[in-house]
Write a structure and sequence with these properties.
The protein is mainly alpha-helical. The chain has three helices and two strands; from the N terminus they run H-H-H-E-E. The protein has a two-stranded antiparallel ribbon. The longest helix has about 100 residues, at about 30-130.
Length: about 170
């Protein structure tokens, strides 16, 4: 049986020793106990692998959620920027419209004032040219405002060939 340990005997002979007998003093467990021990090691290894797999899966889910959250944040920022841009454009459009309306109103007021001044100058020139009094000018302005009469009856005195003139417009 010592032939099984040939390396041991050769090495010992090289050192000047002679091995006559080898005794195994280790622990030899019964087959059933060894199987239980092997099963326990296998279970522990399996649990470690499952835990590592679960940790990897959780980390992957965390990374996915973080990326989704980041995308949502960017999306919200873009929507907010778009809304701010739209609001700014509306404000600018409103301001431009108000400015345009104000300028149009100012221009109309200026044109109306110019027309009024021209009308007043025309009436002054007419009054001076015809030598009319204020009451006569008032009659002319009232007649002009009322428009053309539906019926005109005119009687003139003091003219040698006096005549009565009647005009009807319908």
């Amino acid at each position: 049986m010592i032939g099984v340990y040939q390396n041991l005997t050769t090495r010992a002979a090289g050192l000047g020793l002679h091995v006559s007998k080898v005794v195994f003093r280790g622990y030899m467990a019964p087959q059933r106990l060894q199987k239980m021990h092997d099963d326990a090691i296998e279970r522990r290894t399996k649990l470690v692998l499952e835990r590592e797999s679960e940790l990897q899966e959780q980390k992957l889910k965390d990374d996915r959620l973080a990326k989704e959250e980041e995308r949502e944040k960017v999306k919200r920022q873009m929507e907010r920027a778009q809304a701010e841009h739209t609001a700014q454009m509306k404000r600018e459009r409103f301001t431009a419209d108000m400015t345009e309306q104000r300028e149009t109103a100012e221009q109309k007021a200026w044109l109306q004032a110019a027309a009024n001044e021209a009308e007043l100058a025309h009436l002054q020139a007419t009054r001076e040219r015809l030598g009319l009094q204020g009451a006569d000018m008032a009659q002319i302005l009232v007649a002009r405002t009322q428009g053309a009469p539906a019926k005109l009856i005119q009687i003139t005195r003091g003219v040698p060939d006096s005549a009565v003139q009647i005009n009807e417009t319908a």
